[in-house]
Amino acid sequence: MGVWRGVSEVIAVPTASGTVRGMRRGRLDLYTSSGTEVCFWKACVLLSKLWEFLVPSTDIIMALAEQLLQADAGLPAGWEVRHSNSKNLPYFFNASSKESRWEPPEATDVDKLKVYMAQNTRKPEGKIHAAHLLVKHRDSRRPGSWKEPTITRTKEEAIAILKGHERRIQSGEISLGDLAQTESDCSSARKNGDLGIFGKGEMQKEFEEVAFALEPGQVSGVVDTASGVHLIQR
To answer: Which end of the chain is more exposed for a tag (fewer CB within 10 A), N or C?
Structure first.
C-alpha cells in the first residue's frame, strides 16, 4: 500500500476491489490490492450521504430522546406534554389530530404522568408546581363554588369530607387529580386541581408553607386556609 501524505485523518473502508483510503481535493482514492490507484470523483458524495445516515444529527438525537421521555409520561399513543407560555401551565397535545386539552386524555397512566411531570416540568428557580383539592365551608372567604352557589356546611363537616378524600387517595383507590375533577370547590377542578407553577408570596401563607415542604409527588394532610380546607400535591 502507498503512503498517504497531507491528510490529517484517513478513513479506511474495505471493498471488494480494495480500500478507500482518504480524501484529497474533493476526491477519494481507491488503492487496489495490486497498488494501482483508481479515482472515484462521485465517491465523496456517496460516502458523505452514508455518513449522514449512520451518524444522525443532534436534532434527530434530541427528538428521539424527547420521544423516549414522552413514552414514560404514561400518555396514550400520539399524545405529548407541552407548555403554555401564556398560561404558564402544561397541557396535552395530539400531533395527529391537532387536539389540545388541559386535562390528561383518557387511558392515561396517572401515576406515570405524576412522576413525569415532577421530573420534567420546567420550573423557574425558587418556584414549584402543585395541585390541590379544596373543600369550602360556610366560614370560607367565598362560601360558594362551581358545584354549589351557596355552601352551608360547617368547617368540621368540610374537614371530615376532606379526610375521606385523603383516605381514598392514600389507599391508591384514586388520584388527587381525578378526585379534584368532581370534588374540588376550586375552579382548578377542570384542570385536575392543577395550580401551575408559583413562587413564595403568591399563595396564602398556610398553603405556601405546606406546599414548599412537600416532596415531588407527595400529598399533604388537611391544610386550613381562609379559602377552606385543602389537600395539596406537589
So the answer is: N
Rg (CA), the chain: 30
Q: Are 22 and 4 in contact (CB under 8 A)?
A: yes
pLDDT in tens, the chain (234 residues): 444 344 444 444 454 445 444 444 444 444 444 444 444 445 555 556 555 555 555 554 444 444 544 557 888 888 988 877 776 678 899 988 999 988 888 888 888 887 887 777 666 678 899 999 999 999 999 999 999 999 999 999 999 999 999 999 999 999 999 999 999 999 999 989 999 888 989 999 999 999 999 998 899 999 999 999 999 999
The answer to whether residues 117 and 104 touch, using CB atoms and an 8 Å cutoff, is no
C-beta of residue 89 within 8 angstroms of C-beta of residue 102: yes
Q: Is the dihedral of CA 111, 114, 118, 119 positive or negative?
A: positive
Predicted structure pTM score: 0.53
DSSP assignment, residue 231? E
φ/ψ (deg, to 5) at 84:
-90, 115
Task: Please tell me the distance from the alpha carbon of residue 1 to that of residue 118, in angstroms, as a whole number.
Answer: 60
Active site residues: 132, 186, 204, 227, 230
